[in-house]
Amino acid sequence: MLILAQAGFNKNNKPRLLLANNKTGEIKEFLPQNSQNITIKFNLSTHYCTGWHDLKTGENFTCPDKAVLDSKYNQCSKCQNKTGFNPAFYHASSISPQQQERNNQPHFVYLAYFSDEYIKVGISFHQRGIVRLLEQGARAYLSLGEFTTADIARSYEAKISKLPNIYENIKNNLKIKLLNSEFNKQKAFKKLVQTRSFIEENLKVAFDKNSPEDLSSYYGNFINSKNIILIEDCQNPKNELIFSGKLIAQIGCNWLAETQGELLLLPIKKYVGYQIEINNDLTDIKMPEVQGSLFDF
What we know:
single chain; alpha+beta; six-stranded mixed sheet; DUF2797; DUF2797 domain-containing protein
């Protein structure tokens, strides 16, 4: 039995899944290939702990207790304590030694472009490179600069997020809708540079003059389309979810496949912790009886 332990991108900036075998303790990396036929089946009857991550070595481990959890949690308390990571450490009353060690290392502040109307500010551990941006599905980004600690980087992030039209968080349902926005690299780059100038003017600071970077080449062969169907809107057996088709793109943690003349979207990170099966034999998907674009609401 394999559990989806993680969905994201690896250190080589390739989309990947980490699959955990709770029986053997083995964790495998699955690397999807664009244009391959793929079927992914989730058993939704039981939600498991995804295990723990060693912040120092980068290794992942299965949950020693094989804990079963409510779907709103991905780690049991033991694995959470072993990992010791809190992405919102700045809101916590205390932080772990693992987190403190990580925070004392360089972090960079970035602007992530999703559309002209949605620019997000964030920080990331410098050794992760652009992985965090890829996992968020940003179309382009601009690094404002690298700082010696996470606390310094966070202080800039907090100030920037208070400025108008710059977001600290963008929910995945909005990111999915924004896939309908036509992406123009030159337009995105211009908007990012303008936003940096706006921030510098308002905060009276000067950031590094880095050039914007395009991220679209990391995601696959996606063409903007209004005709996307969410896999959750398809008819699935009780306690099951089946995603099947020719994989064409992985934009952040949203996977897109062509099947039966339609474009299906799977928000795969939503199913972390569930039992998973992957094979290359296509299966028919029962489409919604009244098909409509997810952008209609």
